[in-house]
Every structure is written in structure tokens, then in C-alpha cells.
Write a structure and sequence with these properties.
By secondary structure, the chain is mostly helical. It is built from 21 helices and no strands.
Length: 415
């Protein structure tokens, strides 16, 4: 263990403590209005890992030298933060939401159940599973925006909001396992272990789909009495022409297809920005600020997490298959699940049961904290306005995610 490794581990620990303390910074902002600005900044969960990553880079420059710090930062891959930013903005554009909302409303009217309850159920079940096609970050963005008005409002108790948030995070994390490219922790191992989409569906996907349906059904039942009396105001927004919606869908599909080629999907994004300006009458303000904050968070996690391999990999490599499952679930709560599966992919001679347990544990624990899965910061950014103090407490999220995590673990271990 070098001095730099020790410092990086300490800073990573401080970032975790900071993540669990964002509610406290919001309270300090109200108590000390003269310094509210800095407390509000430190209370933004998306700022946490970016802030501590900058501290680590400065520490690296002091301990080693400035050139070494620059080389380290430039050696990291930032494709995922860039992709999440782009896909968030494109997926949350008004034509995409208009089409999705219309499809969900049409499907809800076909069932002999309260329409709003069916819409919430579809947002918690169908949209996360759809993430296996359009990627998890896109599914998180769409589901969060669909759930915001009916669930994350003043009429719903705070504990139910945390239950819905935790359920959404877990469902998105496991809902991307029907294919081999949509979930970041699966993507890290799919090529090296020769796991194609057929393998993923047969070994993980159908179990994940069952868990998603159970979680969505339980959450909708818990929320239904508030949904029965909730009236969503009608909007008189201009109808989106079919050709506008189709072009947005083509942009979204292009970004998803080229998700691992940042030069291409960023070029598509620039064309997309120009197109939205050309047809501005059919657009709503793009969520550029929210997307940038999420990208900043994930980039910070890449920089901080890149220095944790020295203590994470020995833990992963030393566990038996069943212990590996529970150990991965626990470790996922304090680090990105894709980082854990990547470390596992570096282990020589890992058995097939151990591979299964590693990935199953990584996706199962993906809803426990905001840093557990790459799409989670997007959900936090889009939904935090619906919580008290306009911030989401880490402990509330953890408690809300525990029941659906148990459901997911049961499906992956027992079926």
C-alpha cells in the first residue's frame, strides 16, 4: 500500500460519508443563510464525487507531481459519463415523452383498473424492462419523468416516496439484464466471458422480469389509495407531429447503438441540438443542467474509483460463490457495480457459478445507494424536487430499496 493509495482510499471514504450527509448540508443552509450558497452546493449529491475527485487530483499532484496527476486523469475512460449525459437529454425531450406517455395512457385504458394506478405500474415495470433495449440510463430518465407528477408530490407520504424511489432504482438495475449490452455491470464482462443476449435472458433476464413485476405490483398497491384521489391536471400542450417524434426516436436509437463510440454519439447529439432549435415549437426546455450534473458525478466516480482496485479486487477474488453474491451486494452499495464486475473480469480461472453470483449480486445491489448503479444519479436529479428540502437522504433510499433488493436476490438465488 503506497501513500497515494492510502490517501485515495481515505478520500473515497470521505466522499461516501459526504454522500450520506447531503441532507445535513441542506439543513445547515437554512440555519446559516449567510453561507447558504456553499452549503447548497455541498448538499447537491451530484457534486459530491466530482468535488472529492478534484481533491484527490490535487493530492496526487502534491504527493507525486502535477504531470502524474494529469496522466492519471487522462488515462481514465469517460465514455459512460458522456453517454449518460447525452442519453438523458435526448430521452427526456418532449416528443419522446409525449409518445411514451400516450402509449402508456392508451395501454392503461385497456385494463379494467384505475388508469393512474396502471400508468404508475407500467412506469415501474414496463419502462425498466424496456431499458434492456434502450439502455438503463434512458429507462431511468423516462421512468422518473413519468412518475414525478403522480407519485413524487406533496400528497404522498415521504416514506412511500423513498419506497418508490428504491423500487425504481432496483427495477432499473435488474431490468437491463434481458440483453448483454444495456446494463453497465453486464457490459463489463459480456465480451470477455462470451455472454450474448440469449444467454443473459435464459440465465438472468426472466428472473429479473419476475422480480420487476413483483416489486412494481407491491409498490403500486402501497400507493394506490393516494393515486385514486390524485388528479393530474390536463395540459394543453401542442400535439407533436409524427415526423418530429420519429426523428427524435431515430436520434435516441442512434445514441444507443453507438453508446461505446463517444465521437459518434456526441456528433449525433450536436445535430440533435440543432434539430430541436429548428422545431422549437414542439420542444420543452432540454435538461442540459441536470444531465451535466449527472455526468460530473459519474466522472468523479471514475476518477476516485479508479484508485480503489488495490483493496477491492482481493476481496472479490477471495470469496466463494455464495459469499461472493452477498459480498458483491454489500460492496455495490459503496461503489459502482460496473467497477466490481470489471474487477471480477480480471480474475483468472473464475468458475461459472462465481461469474453468475458476481453479476447477479452487482445488479441486485444496484438500487441501494445513489452510487451503486450509473443511472441512479439521473433518477436523483430528476426526482429530488419531490422530497422534503428538495434533497434525497441516503439512509431513506437505502431503507426504501431493501425490500425490492430482497425480492431480486430471492429470484436470482432460488429460481
Amino acid at each position: 500500500m503506497t501513500t497515494l493509495q492510502l490517501v485515495s482510499a481515505v478520500l473515497f471514504g470521505l466522499a461516501l460519508v459526504h454522500t450520506f450527509s447531503v441532507k445535513g448540508f441542506e439543513r445547515l443552509a437554512h440555519r446559516y443563510p449567510a453561507h447558504a450558497g456553499i452549503f447548497h452546493l455541498l448538499g447537491e449529491v451530484e457534486v459530491v464525487f466530482g468535488f472529492w475527485a478534484m481533491v484527490m487530483v490535487v493530492a496526487m499532484a502534491v504527493i507525486a507531481d502535477g504531470h502524474a496527476a494529469i496522466v492519471y486523469v487522462e488515462s481514465k475512460q469517460y465514455t459512460e459519463p458522456l453517454f449518460v449525459f447525452v442519453v438523458m437529454v435526448v430521452a427526456a425531450s418532449r416528443p419522446i415523452l409525449y409518445w411514451l406517455e400516450s402509449a402508456i395512457q392508451s395501454a392503461a385504458r385497456l385494463l379494467p383498473l384505475p388508469t393512474l394506478s396502471v400508468q404508475v405500474w407500467l412506469s415501474l415495470a414496463a419502462v425498466p424492462l424496456f431499458g434492456s433495449l434502450i439502455t438503463e440510463p434512458a429507462a431511468m430518465t423516462l421512468a422518473a419523468l413519468m412518475l414525478y407528477r403522480p407519485v413524487f408530490n406533496a400528497a404522498v407520504p415521504e416514506y412511500l416516496k423513498y419506497a418508490a424511489l428504491g423500487g425504481l432504482f432496483v427495477n432499473v438495475s435488474i431490468g437491463g439484464t434481458l440483453t448483454s449490452y444495456a446494463a453497465p455491470p453486464v457490459l463489463m464482462v459480456a465480451a470477455g466471458w462470451h455472454w450474448d443476449s440469449l444467454f443473459m435472458f435464459s440465465q438472468f433476464g426472466w428472473k429479473a422480469a419476475l422480480a420487476v413485476v413483483v416489486n412494481a405490483t407491491a409498490l403500486t398497491f402501497m400507493l394506490h389509495k393516494y393515486l385514486l384521489v390524485k388528479k393530474i391536471p390536463e395540459t394543453d400542450e401542442q400535439r407533436v407531429p409524427v415526423f418530429v417524434g420519429l426523428i427524435h426516436a431515430v436520434f435516441l436509437a442512434g445514441v444507443v447503438v453507438f453508446a461505446h463510440h463517444p465521437v459518434i454519439f456526441i456528433s449525433l447529439f450536436l445535430f440533435f441540438l440543432g434539430y430541436t432549435q429548428a422545431y422549437s415549437q414542439y420542444q420543452a426546455p432540454l435538461i442540459l443542467k441536470e444531465g451535466l450534473l449527472v455526468g460530473f458525478f459519474l466522472a468523479g466516480l471514475v476518477i476516485l474509483g479508479g484508485m480503489q482496485q488495490w483493496w477491492l479486487q482481493p476481496i472479490v477474488s477471495s470469496l466463494a460463490p455464495l459469499s461472493l453474491f452477498f459480498g458483491t451486494v454489500a460492496l455495490t452499495a459503496i461503489t459502482d457495480n460496473a467497477a466490481l464486475t470489471y474487477l471480477g473480469s480480471l480474475i483468472e480461472g473464475m468458475s461459472d457459478p462465481a461469474k453468475y453470483m458476481l453479476v447477479a449480486g452487482a445488479v441486485t445491489g444496484g438500487g441501494l445507494t445513489v452510487i451503486a448503479n450509473a443511472p441512479n444519479p439521473a433518477g436523483v436529479t430528476l426526482l429530488r424536487q419531490g422530497f422534503q428540502d428538495q434533497s434525497i437522504g441516503a439512509m431513506g433510499l437505502l431503507l426504501g430499496a431493501l425490500p425490492p433488493t430482497v425480492v431480486a436476490a430471492s429470484c436470482f438465488l432460488l429460481l
